Amino acid sequence: MTWLDTWVAANHFWPSIIYRSAGASVRDRIVAAIDSGRANVDHALSALAWIGDGDVVKLFQIWEAEPPSWRSSLFIGPSRYAHLAGWEPSAFGRRNLYFEQCLAIMPAGSGGESVRSIEVFRRSEERCRWCAGPMAHLIDLDIRDSLFGFFGLRGPRLPVLTCERCTCFGDHHFARFTEDGAAHWFEGNARPNWLPENISTWPPGPWTEIPVRLSPRRPMEAADWCMEIPASQIGGLPCWVQDAAYPQCPSCKQTMKFIAQLDNAQFPSHEGIYYAFLCESCRITATAYQQT
After folding, report:
1. Does 131 lie in the same domain as 272?
2. Are residues 254 and 121 in the same domain?
3. What's the CA gap between 202 and 75, in Å, rounded?
4. Are residues 76 and 122 in the same domain?
5. Is the pLDDT reported for residue 1 higher than 80?
6. Which of 39, 84, 150, 214 could anchor a disulfide with 103, C-beta 3.0 to 4.6 Å?
7. What is the DSSP string of the chain?
């Protein structure tokens, strides 16, 4: 018996990430624990999400269409638990919400040569419609560089336009970019109700226009924000400080894919993570922010 078998026998399903890619036997025992009422359903569904095989995809779809009695105890539908592990059920099976390729981002000053095909928090000439401050590109990638070929996009650049200040007060901040690499405010952005009247004195963040270097790493390497690994990266799985929060594309209504994150905690006396998302077909980006 493995230690994972021991945890299942004790109906212990948290932290759920440890069940990633567990086999069919473990999966079936978790389902049995849910059906019998022995399991904490929230934790058990999270564990199943990390297993994420074809049977789990079908189960999540069935539980959405025919809600079991335990559904009333949940704040979200069963299929939304899949977001925790970076995927969602679809008509074609499992749809991943992240890219398998992953490049860690580090300030170039920490050693190594900077990569010219990526810029972080580069100032934009566009002004925020809410706070009137200068907007910035959370990331701006030269997608002609083979490093970023996995995005499969046409055009010279992938710019992720945002307001560094206002995105901290809302759910998601959207922008649209054209094939020539220009990014613009998305007219459908909804002003947050709790945005302060004046945030003009908001200081620039630690990543503002600094050179960075990239290094390959596994897509799962920084998936748990409690780990000490610097979280900033292009691609891979996001590490959520709070709940998983993939945005819905405001144009096609499809769940957007995670493409990058910048972790302020890589600098002394700073915290919080900025996230970037993409809808490839609509050429719309989104940003979000989470902190403890």
Report:
1. yes
2. yes
3. 35
4. no
5. no
6. 214
7. --HHHHHHHTT---SGGGGTT--HHHHHHHHHHHHHT-S-HHHHHHHHHHH--HHHHHHHHHHHHS--GGGGG-SS-GGGGGGGGTEEEETTEEEESSEEEEEEEEEGGGSSPPPTTEEEEEEEEEEPTTT-PEEEEEEEEETTSGGGGGG---SSEEEEEE-TTGGGSSS-EEEEE-TTS-EEE-TT----TT--S--TTPPPPTTTT--EEEEE--TTTT-STTSSS---EEEE----SSS--PPBPTTT-PBPEEEEEEEGGGSTT---EEEEEEETTTTEEEEEEE--
Among the candidates 25, 55, 90, a domain finishes at 90
Supply the pLDDT for residue 109: 81
pLDDT tens digits, 67-118:
999 999 999 999 999 999 999 999 999 999 999 999 999 999 866 789 999 9
pLDDT value at position 111? 65
Does 54 share its domain with 145? no
pLDDT, one tens digit per residue, over 222-246 is 998 777 789 999 999 999 999 999 9
Boundary of a domain, candidates 90, 112, 146: 90
Compute how many other C-beta atoms are within 10 angstroms of the C-beta atom of residue 112: 13
pLDDT digits (tens, 9 = 90+) for 149-203: 999 998 999 999 999 999 999 889 999 999 999 999 999 999 988 888 888 778 8
